[in-house]
Structures are given as structure tokens and as C-alpha cells.
Amino acid sequence: MSDSDKKPTLGRRPLGLKTSVEAGEVKQTFSHGRTNKVVVEVKRRKLMGRPGEAAPVAAPVAAPEPTPVAPPPAPPPPPPPPAASRESRQEMQTRLLREAEEARLNSLEAANRREQEERLRAIEDDRRRAETKARGDQPEEPVAAPTQAAPAPAAAAPEPEVAVAPEPVAQAAAPAPAAAAEPEVEAAPAIPAPRRFTPVPSAAPAKRPEPAAKKPSGAPRDRKTEDRRGGKLTVTRALNDDEGARARSLAALKRAREKEKRAHFAGQSQPRDKQVRDVVVPDAITVQELANRMAEKAADLVKALFKMGMMVTINQTIDQDTAELLVTEFGHNIERVSDSDADIDTTYDVDEEETLKVRPPVVAIMGHVDHGKTSLLDALRGTDVVRGEAGGITQHIGAYQIKTKGGEHITFLDTPGHEAFTEMRMRGANVTDIVILVVAGDDGLMPQTIEAINHTKAAGVPMIVAITKSDKPEFNPQKIRERLLEHEILVEAMSGDVQDVELSAKTGAGLDELIDKILLQAELLELRANPDRAADATVIEAKLDKGKGPLATVLVNRGTLKVGDILVVGTQSGRVRAMLDDKGRQIKEAGPSLPVEVLGLGGVPMAGDSLTVVETEARAREVAAYRQEMATAKRTVQAPVNLENMFSALATKNAIIEYALVVRGDVQGSVEAIVNALNKISTDEIKVRILSSGVGAITESDVNLAQASGAPIVGFNVRPNAKARELIERNKVRMKYFDVIYQLTDDIRSEMAGELGPEAIETVVGRAEVKEVFPAGKKDKAAGLLVVEGVIRKGLHARLTRNDVIVSRTTISSLRRFKDDVAEVRGGLECGVLLTDTNDIKAGDQLEVFEVEMRDRTL
């Protein structure tokens, strides 16, 4: 293998066989210091020699060309000396790069000529048509350009070029593809023939290729070609000459797209008509909300108000008249509404007669505490509820539905009988159809029994008197009937219209008769409701469960309550996530007169609130927000402020002691009853101040509030959570836990009495009249008295009055009869006294002597 076969490619020795492709890298230098590196590959053509001759080495081919007539090969020169081998490689790389550049320029020139030829033909056709139209003749058919012009003698056959080089590499003739493949371009006289580049011997220094021939001055400029030729030489352009145009960057594409979009909208931009809206304006509205309803900018509304002389912010509330001015100025229509329109009014929502269906009756069991209300309900339900109540008394309002032997359903409400649960009994009477007044046959009418009678009369509900405990020997029903006459209740046994039943919850006697009379009364009332509509219900009880969240026990009045319904309950809104019946089973629907426990409220509602199903959550939030605003305004309403009110309030505040409390209960009804009972304990000297009351476990906020105010925390059937217990132990906050309400009220009453301290009881012992005043020592004065009534003793408290006006309060420090000190002087005798810390004594004054006894105060 010769030395030329061992030449490395790209600085690397070949691995045995000689490759047919050699690659090199050239560094190009441009203006402004720019450089670029281009990788050039050169293919070698294999030439077959004659037999007996050495095979010539293929010359590098830059572009395909017609096969020329090969000249006789020259005899191979002697191999060069080893010292010049490095120089020969450099010269070969330079020559190969120069030939590649020449091939590229030839390709560009050929493409340029084709484009110029097509453009000239188009111009010539347009000129001919214009001349024909000007002469008025028929348009001539355009003469088709010859597809192939007669080749020039020089281009008929490529002239072989013999390369003379000292190296053993035969140089091939320079390719001329444009002259052989497309001779019609050379036929055009306006464009000169391409300049041919003849390779120089390798011994000569490398020569830069000459620039392409200049265009004639009359030829039109090809901007695309000029841009392409003047562009930067890249690897893509070097390897793919046909795609000379540089790809556009993403930023350029984006700018072009935006420009096109602007131009498109500029052509369509027409002044759009202002959209006139019907703006609903309530009695008061914020500037931001008004701007939202008008679809205007809030800053524009504030600017307009500034021009009117009103310095407002976007969160400030304006009245309806000001809002009307703004709406009119901005070109909208105003619709005046009242704030009450935001609330739900069901007074006009009356169901059609044909939609009504029979519903079960709702029966409330009312009466005095320990008269057997819950025991009667236990007997009707077949369960035992009393054992679950602390102290054996009902402190929660329970709702249950039973099924009779005949298949009818009856809903029962068990109300507490304790005096603190007045609100619960009143609420139970208002939501029921029939009231069962439970009176113990061995006890008679008691205060809560009379109260239940009054609630029933106020609600206008029919009553059934149940005289219980008939199994006891002291049972006397006739006495009960006679006592009921005092309250204008005449039972059927005494020719009245009120039904009465004698029964025993322990033995079960009279229960069937009671159920029959309930069904008879319900039949007379013709209880009906429309189940095929949105539900309306009343909250019987509400509480906060640790795992389930806010819960509300509701009684459906009409319609059907379904899972997923959006509802408003008082000041709370929510969605029905689940419903539980009185036995704890999940149900999907609840019809009229069915008590259910609803999960999914946003907060704990108040017992007695109405539940209404609405269409959307937005409407539910709107109604709840309006009701919350009204409740806040009602709670914070204040009397007109003037000096008289201010001073009277200060005097009252200084005179009355406030006993602060934080109350937490298990259900809303219990909290309500506790707050009412504590307010009744208040007197003119001390009153209860409830800092916070709520439903659920005692939390950290309750502990912090109690610590800041020094108030104890009262927990009714609830306990603090873990963090609250830690705060209680750390801050030593007083806690009071109760599960029976009367124990709670008794304890708070004694604590409030202790806050006032012991009560001073005055007992008048005697009275005397001052007859004469004597000096006693330097400062003091002694009074000569005549005891008119009772006894005067030494050391007792005394009041000195003059014309029935108290002059001073003092004590008797010395008592003498004549010159002897005595302990007491009885009535009708004379004596001399020395009073403590007073010298304002005159003849004719009255002296009243009394004793003071300190007793524990009671409320």
C-alpha cells in the first residue's frame, strides 16, 4: 500500500480499507469578525484503467455531470518524498474545498439563470398582450418558448480538461451541469454564459474563486436571489443548495401572525354600540357591586361620583337615588327593588287543590316535668328514651314517626317540660297539628302545664288531654277535669269538645284509645299537603357534630326533600348531602310530616328557622347573606346618642355588676334555654352577660375569650377538645360542666350572689331626741338625749337627722347617765352620748340607733 493510501481523513487513520468519501472541515471568515465552520465531503470516482496499466485514482466530484471522453491517462509520477507528505495533504484539502465552493456557486448561477429566463418570458408575454389589446386585434396565442435551444458550439460537447499535478491523483474536469442539462439558458443573449473555473496545479498557491458574473444593468433585480446569496453560509445551505432561503425563527413567525391579526381586525374595527343593561338596584349597594351589575369599571363610577362631589371608595355603600343617577349617566336602565325582595316570601305560594294529598298528623306531647311525657312516647314507640336523658328529664326536643296497627303513620314531637324550655314548647306547639296535654293523675295541674295550655291556645291547635299514671292508687282524673275548667278547657266527659284519655304508660292501658282519638282528630282536620314540589320545612333542633358537622333535625311541612337539594335555613345555606330518619337509617327522600336529620349545612341554624329549597347556590347565598345582614343590624341597633342617654348609660353601667359567661351546649335548643334561664336570674344589682354562646365542643377561641375577660366557661353536655384542654390547664381558666339544666341555673345563681357579697340587714333598736349640746374636750361635742323609743346601746350604729334629712352616719362611742358610764339606756330616761367623727349636732336633732346584720345574698 502506497503512502497516499495511508493519508488520514479528518486527522484519523483509516481502519484498513480505503473509503470512497473524504471529509474535511473549513473555517470561513466573514466581516465584523464572524466565522463559520463547514464540513465538506468529497466523493471519489473509481476509474478503471487499461490492462497492464496502474489503476488511476478517482478525482473528487463536486456535482453530477455528463461523462466526458476520457483522455489517455498520464503515467504515474514518482512518489513524493516523505518530508513533503504533510504539505501535500494541506494542499489537497484546500483544493477540494475550492472545488466544492465552485460547484455550489455554479448551482446558484444555474438557478438564477432559470428564474431570470422565466421572468423575461413572462414580461415578453405581457408586452405582447398589451400591444395586441392596444391595436384592437384578436389576441394572439403566446409563442411558447423552445424547450431546448440550439446549443452553442462550445457547449455541444464538454471540452475535456487535463489536469497536470505533481501528486498521483488525477484531476477531473470542472463540472458544468447547467451547460449540458439545460442548454436553453445559454441561448438567452441577455445573460452571459457561466464562467468556468479551471483547477490549477496543486503546486501553485491556492487561489480564491472569482465572483460570479455581474448582471446586465437592464435586467430586473431578483430580491429573493440577492437575499439568498447575501445570506450567511450554513451547513444546511452548503448541503442543500436548492433551499437557500433561511428558516424563520419562532419569534418572527409570531410577530408576523400578530401583524396579520391586527390587520384583520383593523379592517373590521367598527365603533360598537354600547350595550344597554337592566340594572337591578336595591335600597343600598356598594360601588363595586353596582359596577359589576352595570359591567362598567369601578374606577369610572368613582370618578363620576367625584364629579358629583361625593368622595367615595369602591367598597362604600351608596343609596338607591345615587345609584340611579350613576345608572342613568352611563346609559343603562334601572330597576328599583327593595332589600326585602332578596328574601324568600312563601305567603303567596299556595298549592292547587288538586295537587294536595293526605299527610300524617304531627302530634306534640306537652306538659309539666315528670308527668310522664317521655314514658308515654316510649310506650308508643316500644323503646326507652328516658334512660338516655340526664336526670330522667327530657332536655332535647325529639321527633319520631310510628306506624300504627292499621298502617297509618303518626309523627310525635317530645318537648321538654322544664321551665327553662319555654321556647321549645312554644316552637313545638307552632309546628304541630295536634297537642297532647299530659297531666299526672296524682299530681294535678302545675305551672308548666298551664304554660303549655297557653301555648296551645296561642297556636290555635286542637288539644287532647292525656291523664297519666292511672295505675297509681292516688289517681284522681275527676280532679284534673275540674281543674281544667279554670283554664276554659271543657273535656268530653263534662259535655265539652276536648277529648280526654285515661292511660298508664307502665301498663299500656289506654294507648290504643289515644291513637284512635289522634287519628279521629286528624281526619277531622283534613290534613293534606302537596308532595310533588320543592320542600318547605321547619327546624326542630340543630347541633354541631364532631364527625358530621352541622346537623339540623327538620320537619317537612310540604313538598319532598331530596338528597342534593340546595336549601336556605335561616342565615345559613347549603346542600343536602345526606338525610337520616329517626332510626338512624339513610334515606333519599323525605315527604310531608316526616322528621329527618339533614347533613350538609354551612353552619348551625337556629331552632325554629324555616328551611326552603331554592334553584341555585347563588340564590341561596344571596338570601342567606341578606338574612345575616338583617340579623346583624337588629342585634347592633342602638338608641339615639345624646348627652342624656350617654350619662344614664354610664350611671347604669357603674351601678350594675355584670357576670360574664361563655356558654357552649350540645344542641341549639339547650343553648337557647340556658341563655333564657340565665337572663331571668339577673336582677337590678347584677346581671348575666353572655360573651359567647354556641353549639359544639369547647374550642381554643372560647378559652382565649374566657381568659381575657375572666369569665368561667359553662359546658352543657360538651367537653373541650385537646388543644382547649391544654390552654385551660395552662391559663387556669374556670370550667363548669353540667348535664341537667336546673343544676346549672342553681350554681350560676349562687355564684352571682357571691359576686354581690353578703347583704346588710338593718334593725332599728331605739330613737332619741337631742335636748342640749355640751363641749367635750377641745374638739368634740357631747349631746344630751331623751330616749323616746327603744334602747340606746354603746357601740351601735346611729343616724343623726335634722328635719328628716340625714346629717351624718356615725356610731355611739361613749354613753353616760349622769357621771357614770353605762351600757344601755332605756326609753323615757335621759343620757349623754359622744358620737364618733361628727360635731354637727344641734338641739332638736333626732338620733336613730340600729343594728346591722350581714346575711348571705340570694337571687
From TrEMBL:
Note down the stretches annotated as region Disordered. Answer: 1-24, 46-243
Q: Name one GO cellular component term.
A: cytosol
Cross-referenced Gene3D superfamilies, in alphabetical order?
A: P-loop containing nucleotide triphosphate hydrolases (3.40.50.300), Translation factors (2.40.30.10), Translation initiation factor IF- 2, domain 3 (3.40.50.10050)
Pfam families for the chain: EF-G_D2, GTP_EFTU, IF-2, IF2_assoc, IF2_N
Subcellular location(s): the record lists: Cytoplasm
Keywords from UniProt, A to Z, are: Cytoplasm, GTP-binding, Initiation factor, Nucleotide-binding, Protein biosynthesis
**InterPro entries in UniProt:** EF-G-like_DII, IF2_assoc_dom_bac, IF2_II, IF2_N, P-loop_NTPase, Small_GTP-bd, T_Tr_GTP-bd_dom, TF_IF2_bacterial-like
- The UniProt regions of compositional bias labelled Basic and acidic residues, in chain numbering, are 86-104, 111-138, 220-230
Q: Tell me which family the UniProt entry assigns to this protein.
A: Belongs to the TRAFAC class translation factor GTPase superfamily. Classic translation factor GTPase family. IF-2 subfamily.
**Protein name per the record:** Translation initiation factor IF-2
> What species was this sequence derived from?
Novosphingobium hassiacum
* Gene encoding the protein: infB
